[in-house]
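Schema walk-through. Below, the input block comes first and the output block second. Nothing else is stored per chain. Lengths vary across the set, and this one has 748 residues.
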Amino acid sequence: YNYNSNFMKRIFIITLFSSISVLGFSQIKKQKVIPDSTFREVNLDEITLSASRFSEMKKFVPQQVQTVSSEKIKFLNQQTTAEMLTHTGNILVQKSQLGGGSPVIRGFEANKVLIVVDGVRMNNAIFRGGHLQNVLSMDNSILDKTEILFGPSSVIYGSDALGGVMSFYTKNPKLSTSDKSNFGGNAFFRYSSAYNEKTGHVDFNIGLKKVAFLTGFTFSDFGDLKQGSNYFSKYPNWGKRNFYVERINGVDSMIANSNPNKQVQTNYKQYDFIQKVLFKTGRIENVLNFQYSTTGDVFRYDRLTETNNAGIAKNAQWYYGPQKRLLASWQLSLPKTKLFDFGSVTTAYQNIEESRHNRGFKSTKLNHRIEKVDVASLNADFKKSIKKTEFNYGAEFIYNKVTSKAHFENISTGQSGALDTRYPDGGSNTQSYAAYGTFLHKFGSTIIVNSGFRYSYNRLFSKFNDKTFFPFPYNDIEQSSSALTGNMGIIFLPKGGWRIAALVSSGFRTPNVDDMSKVFESGAGTVIVPNPKIRPEKTINYETTVSKTFFNRYQISGTAWYTNYNDALSTDFSTFNGSPTIVYNGTTSQVVTVVNKNKAYVWGLSGTIAGDINQHFSFSTVLNYTYGRIKESPKNYPLDHVAPVFGRTSFFVKYGNFKGEVFALYHAAKDSANYNLRGEDNQIYSADPVRGYTPGWLTANLRTSFDINKYATIQFAVENIFDKYYRVFASGLSAPGRNFVITLRGKL
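--- output ---
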């Protein structure tokens, strides 16, 4: 079966057949429909928190928003938060290793999409522009809900929110509603076959009348991932793991893999801990929030599969050290005053550590580069309503301190020595100050107007101490910038179940330490050098959403959007001390630097068809199309990070204690003509390593859940039923093959 031919035609047929079938079935037995909004794809009466940092009904928000509730997260039952985002149907997730997952929203990825946890931004000063695995450090087992804002969201969230925002909300402690204390808890154990995954989780709540405690812990042990065995007929050997490297008797050796479908060196472990305390002091509600996440070593799988022209492995070792994330925050919910109806102040501290370790094949030099980031932040947000008008306003302060160290060790002799650091060895810091205000007014019950603005000032400083590896003509770099962003939206709610929304919004991303101060060998014969003159990247976005609800049971929604992307950062050839080349690590290399070179545009369509057939059955289809180009002469060039057409079609059943879902995930082909060979599209890991090409694919899947009683639940799933081999666009890791998942849950 050819998965690449007539892809859109097949998806259209699936959607059309699904819609006709369920509409026909719904007429067999007319009965009162009691929709289960937990699993609805479109629910305009749902409340969103992330759009304005306060509770707001979705139908009053002009921006495209998707919410994934805790019940749905539990039912999706995915191994990681990255996998959970994939199953929303609206986010593509790239992977270079199993211990990773880089979300792509509307053609933007990594440091161009924002991650927020309990109101605190996770993006820090060393978030890079390629692919990022930081979303993995968020444990989806303890999430109360996830909200995804699509498109620029800089008015509320500032820098980095070009493609959108992923807001994760962890569960809060629950107070006792009586004089007696209450105790509740949850636990589960999950095994999945393709991952050889063993995950255990426990959380419990102790609630008194004025203080409550929530504690949670999750441990995951992943084995080597098994990929699908049903290969594309045109690419029968693509992605097979034919070898791996072992050091035998002090010599690196390429070992033949007895099972090429087993992706050797993808295994890793992860630990997640959370402690939250809720207490009241007078009329103020306080939440102390402590989170810690760490992994074991994580193999950089894609780099370990690379070979030279002679078929010899390039790397003997390439792994990330434990990725550590610590968050400590204190959030105060303030009582009503004359200045605001609701107020929230959040102060937070984060400590992040990540490291890279690599050694060439048959080399004895193992390189170690370690980065640490300390982040302090303060957010103050307020909401005031006057009749039919709502005002939101607030301020934000963020401080990042970056420490970068490096050394090498000789694995034969044990000797160690100095090594060039990834970032300036004298340290770096960034500061951000911002204030914002938004306005919402309801003209009767049919027209709602939203608008807002934000002003941000940013400063960066980096210092170079050791110039042994690179003779900089300066000792430090200092840069400052400011940005004024805004949005304007209007919503029309006529009768008949219609909703029409239009939005113009702007976004920006301030250059961080990774952009400004990184010095490293980016490839054979090229060296990136710092450029203190770069400016913030900017976008302006136009979008329209039209939705229609039929009989309070069926919904159709579509969003069309266009984003202008200006001052985009990219590398370009440059000079150093007047010369286009420099000797670096003993090699004459071409000098390149990061510049505000590109202007680009991205546009796309997103659509949803969903319905509740009756109180037992529902269906949904989500489909996304994105097109992006860099503006240049004589012909526009493909923008990287742009996903092919992708989506999800699902049938859901709920009957008594049983829930079930049959669903398909699918991606169209990424043609060579749409590959960016100069950026992060990773053509070398695709089916065509020269021009780039990723075949389209479709998987059939089944998941079920049965409540044995009010204390115990069993879940069973079969993913990729037909064991199809495929890779998600830009990934250097092949996707899981047929995967059996069984989970036992208990609660008190």
